[in-house]
Write a structure and sequence with these properties.
Largest sheet of chain B: none
Number of helices of chain A: 15
Number of domains of chain A: 3
Radius of gyration of chain A: 33 Å
Structural class of chain A: alpha/beta
Strand content of chain A: 5-15%
Shape of chain A: elongated
Largest sheet of chain A: 6 strands, parallel
Structural class of chain B: mainly alpha
Strand order of the largest sheet of chain A: 7-6-5-8-9-10
Number of strands of chain A: 10
Number of strands of chain B: 0
Oligomer: heterodimer
Order of helices and strands of chain A: EHHEEHHEHHHHEHEHEEHEEHHHH
Largest interface: A-B, 33 and 26 residues
Distance between the termini of chain A: 16 Å
CATH superfamily of the largest domain in chain A: Glutamyl-tRNA reductase, N-terminal domain
Order of helices and strands of chain B: HHHHHHHH
Shape of chain B: flat
CATH topology of the largest domain in chain A: Beta Polymerase, domain 2
CATH class of the largest domain in chain A: Alpha Beta
């Protein structure tokens, strides 16, 4: 019987020191896929290698031992990366059949990601699959499995909201800006002070259409240095905040121990800019912007806590949605597993039918040659033999299908027994075919 | 038959209003991600079907009366609802912002409800008033009203969205309201459209007076004065925005004031003052 197996490690179970030793480069991937097929009797394989996880999906024949494919994969990884078998067993997980299917569906749907719902993983799985397919790694079973995984991922994205809502401070700021301005095009962002967070936020804003970046700093040299990253306009400010007249979005993160932007001066600035909306983001601690600024008409002030609350609400929402997504994954995995097994037993059933039919046909012809019956009688005898064949096969076939549907692990033995006892030659390749 | 059609229209408008409001209310929640699109669909298609039925009703009513039905409250409010829905559907077609329906559809429903409650058969109109002037004049005025009601809807959406942003509602990113800038801009455009239509309607109306002989006409008619005041409120709004940059919250409030003025002109004058425009 063919088994779908997987071995892998991820940020959930292993530290970076282990994951990096197990990682595959693209050339290594192609080489490994070949080696797996040539030296390890693996029929199909896909290797997924990202910074958070390394996973190997394979289809192998487990007629002799159910455990055999697992051992084989451990052996391969251990030799390829020169890692002890013990370490591999400690830091990785092993799945087979239904569990493998479920795991891949979870990974592709971004349920196993560090940030649930993050969109990159789908692309990473697709890339891994494409490499494997062009290197001849993925065959009929894995083709079906990965196609299904992508469609389940898509279903989860459309039926749940695990992938919506900003889950980082910088994205939350961008999303909020979109709730204020009808478009971010032609808008100006001003960054006051320096800091990774403010630069990241500005970068996202630019990616979303903001066209002008003003970089203000106490010292002109620093302003120039930061401005280079955004093709921004450097600006050295003293106490005059006049440059804010042009700013639609203000990100402040200085280490000033006092309020840099106060209500009264900003109200004047708002008047000068004809009360066009201003979105102020204060990510400095201690704060740079007087809280009362948020009371000015058309000025909207969010500090670091406000943004974090938005992120927390979104994360909580994603968690809730993840539970629903898990149900979808389980349901789809079960359905896919059953389909796969039906496909595995169907050649045997077909062969059995053929054999019985053949015997019946041969015997019928022999019998008809010896007797002289009218056309009507011949037809009656022929349909009787058909009925006998059907009835004889009814229970074995029904029970075999039942065993598959019940998820009975013994159905492999049934198939094996049938093949041996009736000397059937069910084509294994056909078994995995569509 | 025609009464049944009207009742059916009324019920469809009621359900469309309910579903429109419902879709706005549950917009924040995500436990039911499949429910919301369904409700939105029902709301929108209810609106579309309701509009088709209302159009059919007005057409049949017109045929039955033998002249453009604009004599009784029944005629007027049904036509008012028709204009509101038409403007709403045009806006949806242009902007894909269905949320506006949560604000304007209840107004349309109430108009039809009034129309239905006052339904009567007797509606005579002086021969001299039965002409294309009447159709042009009333259509323009009602479309102007409908545009002002859309502006009012955008004003309300603006104020709701602004409150959420200011109060830092945690789930504010999940609601269906458009951005402040969008509501503000679209509300302004509706106001301009309304002013253009109203101006045209008033001009047509005043030209029409030249041709009416057998109905006494006085310029100091309550409806005329009230309409001119409403017109002035909206023109002032546009002017202040152009010259002093008033927009956003103030514009939203003035859209609401304008809406009240429209209601006073449309309903108030008839109820409390004497006018030759009065519906019977």
């Amino acid at each position: 019987m063919n088994q779908i197996v997987s071995i892998g490690t991820s940020h959930h179970v292993a530290p970076i020191e282990f994951r990096e030793r197990l990682a595959f480069s693209e050339e290594q991937l192609i080489e490994s896929l070949q080696r797996l097929r040539e030296s390890y009797q693996v029929q199909e394989a896909v290797i997924l290698s990202t910074c958070n996880r390394v996973e190997l999906y394979a289809v192998a024949n487990s007629r002799r031992h159910a455990e055999a494919p697992a051992k084989m994969l451990v052996e391969f990884l251990s030799r390829y990366h020169r890692i002890g078998v013990e370490a591999l067993k400690k830091w990785s997980y092993f799945h087979h059949d239904l569990e493998t299917i479920r795991h891949l569906f979870r990974v592709t749907a971004s349920l196993d990601s560090m940030i649930v719902g993050e969109p990159q993983i789908l692309g990473q799985v697709k890339a891994a699959y494409d490499i494997s397919r062009s290197a001849g790694g993925a065959g009929t079973i894995l083709n079906r499995l990965f196609a299904k995984a992508f469609s389940v991922g898509k279903r989860i994205r459309s039926e749940t909201t695990i992938a919506t809502g900003a889950v980082s401070i910088s994205y939350a700021a961008v999303e909020l800006a979109k709730r204020i301005f009808n478009t971010l095009e032609e808008k100006t962002v001003a960054i006051i002070g320096a800091g990774e967070m403010s630069e990241l936020t500005a970068k996202h804003l630019v990616a979303n259409g903001v066209s002008k970046v003003i970089v203000a700093n106490r010292t002109y040299e620093r302003a120039v240095k930061i401005a280079q990253k955004f093709k921004g306009i450097p600006f050295a400010y003293e106490d005059d905040l006049g440059f804010l007249v042009d700013a639609d979005i203000v990100i402040s993160s200085t280490d000033a121990p006092y309020y840099l932007i106060k209500r009264k001066p900003l109200a004047d600035i708002m008047k000068k800019r004809k009360h066009r909306y201003m979105f102020l983001i204060d990510i400095a601690v201690p704060r740079d912007i007087e809280p009362d600024v948020g009371k000015i008409d058309h000025a909207f002030l969010y500090n670091i806590d406000d943004l974090e609350a938005v992120v927390a609400a979104n994360l909580k929402d994603r968690q809730q949605e993840a539970t629903r997504a898990e149900h979808i994954v389980s349901e789809e995995a079960k359905r896919f597993h059953a389909q796969l097994q039906i496909l595995e037993v169907s050649p045997t059933i077909k062969a059995l039918h053929q054999q019985f039919q053949q015997v019946a046909e041969t015997e019928l012809q022999a019998c008809l040659g010896k007797t002289e019956l009218s056309n009507k009688q011949e037809a009656a005898v022929a349909s009787m033999t058909q009925a006998i064949v059907k009835k004889l096969l009814h229970h074995p076939v029904k029970n075999l299908r039942q065993a598959v549907n019940d998820g009975d692990a013994d159905h492999g033995q049934y198939v094996h027994a049938l093949q041996e006892m009736f000397a059937l030659e069910a084509n294994e390749d056909e078994a995995s075919g569509v | 038959m025609i009464n049944f059609l009207f009742l059916l229209t009324l019920l469809i408008y009621l359900s469309a209003s309910i579903f429109q409001t419902l879709s706005l209310a549950i917009g924040n929640r995500t436990e039911t991600p499949l429910l919301r699109p369904t409700i939105e669909h029902i709301a929108f298609w209810g609106t579309t079907i309701g509009f088709a039925l209302l159009t059919l009703f007005i057409a049949l009513w017109w045929l039955q009366q033998g002249h453009f039905p604009m004599t009784h409250w029944t005629d007027s409010t049904a036509f008012f609802a028709w204009a509101i829905t038409l403007i709403y559907l045009i806006i949806v077609r242009l902007t894909h912002l269905r949320t506006l329906g949560s604000f304007v559809m209840p107004v349309a429903f109430i108009a039809i409800l009034i129309s239905y409650s006052f339904a009567t058969d007797t509606a005579a109109l002086p021969e001299s008033l039965q002409n294309y002037w009447l159709i042009a004049h009333t259509t323009l005025i009602f479309l102007a009203y409908a545009a002002f009601i859309a502006a009012f809807g955008f004003g309300l959406m603006y104020l709701m969205a602004e409150r959420r942003i200011r109060e830092k509602t945690h789930t504010l990113l999940q609601n269906l309201l458009p951005s402040l800038g969008t509501s503000d801009e679209l509300g302004y455009r509706c106001t301009i459209l309304g002013v253009i239509l109203l101006t045209m309607g008033v001009i047509v109306g005043s030209l029409w007076t030249q041709y009416i002989q057998d109905v006494p006409w006085k310029w100091l008619d309550a409806k005329v004065i009230s309409t001119l005041m409403t017109w002035f409120i909206y023109v002032a709004q546009i002017g202040i925005r152009q010259f002093w940059g008033w927009h956003g919250r103030r514009a939203a409030y003035s859209a609401i004031i304008g809406f009240v003025a429209v209601l006073c002109t449309y309903v108030g004058v008839d109820l409390f003052l004497d006018s030759m425009h009065t519906y019977r």
